[in-house]
Amino acid sequence: MGSGIMARAFVQAYRQALANASKNGVAQEAVQNIRRGSKMMTEAEARQILGVTENATWEEILQKYDNLFERNAKNGTFYLQSKVHRAKECLETIHQPKEQSTS
C-alpha cells in the first residue's frame, strides 16, 4: 500500500515538473540539446542511403523512400528500415523549407 502511494506521488511530481518545464521552454531546449548530442545523419549519408543525387526532387526522394521502406519491411531488418526512415527525415528538413518558401 505504501509503495502505491509513493508511485502516485512520483507520477504527480513528474507531471508537475513537465508542466513547469514546458511553461519555461526548458523542455524544448532539452530536446534540442539531446538532438545535438546524438549523432545526426549528414545530408550526404542520407542521400547515399536513399540513392538520390543532390538534384533530386522531393517527389523522387519520397519514391525512393517508399520503395526501400517497403522492401525492408518484407525482407530486411528493422535497423535498415530505421536508417531509411532517418535518411528521409534528414532530407525532409532540407527540402520542406524550400518548398514552403516557394509556395
Automatic annotation (TrEMBL):
GO terms for biological process: negative regulation of defense response; protein import into mitochondrial matrix. It is a peripheral membrane protein. It is found in: Mitochondrion inner membrane. Keywords: Membrane, Mitochondrion, Mitochondrion inner membrane, Protein transport, Translocation, Transport. GO terms for cellular component: TIM23 mitochondrial import inner membrane translocase complex. The keyword Cytoplasm does not apply. Transmembrane segments: none annotated. Belongs to the TIM16/PAM16 family. This is Mitochondrial import inner membrane translocase subunit PAM16 like 2 isoform X2. It comes from Sesamum indicum (Oriental sesame). The gene is LOC105165577.
